[in-house]
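Figure 2 data, in text form.
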Amino acid sequence: MLPGLRRAFRKEPVCVCAAAAAALSALFVPPDAGYFAYPDWRTIALLFCLMTVVAGFRSLGVFLLLGEALLRRARTLRALSVTMTALCFASSMVITNDVTLITFVPFTLLVFRRIGRGRDALRLSVLETIAANLGSMATPIGNPQNIYLTSAAGLSLGEFAWAVLPYAGLSFVLLLAAAAAVPAHPAEGHMETESPLPRRQLLPALLPHLFLLVLALLVVFRILSWEPVLLVTLAVTALCDRRLFRGVDWFLLLTFLCFFLFIGNLRRLPEVNGLLTALVAGRELWAGLLASQIISNVPAAVLLSGFAKDPAALLTGVNIGGLGTLVASLASLITFQLYAAVYPYKKGAFLLRFTLWNAAFLAALIPLAALLS
């Protein structure tokens, strides 16, 4: 493998694999005009718009200010754990699971070191990861697979709610119980987090991003078309701060595009299309759960959606499937990398604790899935 390709694979393995799959499928279905009909442009545009909005919020320090405000009330290790777990669960519903972890896991590690409880950061880091992955399932914009499946399948609010809310509700109760099991040791000390702007200027600077968030939500609920909202988002972001475009996960967008090409080509091969439809149809929940353990839940959602007859069941499967292995949700890798950077000698301990807690939550949710499916 060439050095450049090796570095790209280490940094963005899913994107590289998706590109390779698309290129391989093109050998069997040569590029033609039909390729332009493969991608779900609405989903790609919506992902882009939401990423720019979140980048705007992060640039103003909104999430860290919120975390600091909540932490001022946490006087014990137990209160701190419950607060941060609930914060990650709730935040992921709006800013997605990966952005939640990028924002709050480093914050948690710093806070625990500041209060002299660094050894206790492992448990909370794992719980925050599970909270972000499970909380993100509760809204159509909480994670990429929800955005895609809600958009592509045209799920109604009722269908979406039935597919995810029972699991999100049970997950929240279990997470609070796990966080509250921490001993109530004193947690003295906190860290001050300042916004890049004075407080009186924060709200005016935030208003354009709130406006763009409202527009994106109107696209999610099919009140507005994605084309004008995309143009408005581009224009407003360019006027406010062009640097926010760097906060867009361009590799994720490219990954979606490559998977759309791959799936579109597979569907034009009658034998392959028939085989995958027979394997997935009627087993969407379990197919999504199992495939997520190997290729992670976002690629699993995109790949299996082309052959699923019940998109709501697939939505359930890939969201629950975010539990389990470290790669089941790529957002989990963010926590692993952040934790390992601070505690490189505890990688094995993290993987063990992460796997045990994920297995426990998965074991609690699977019976509910079997009952409701």
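Caption note: The mean pLDDT is 86.
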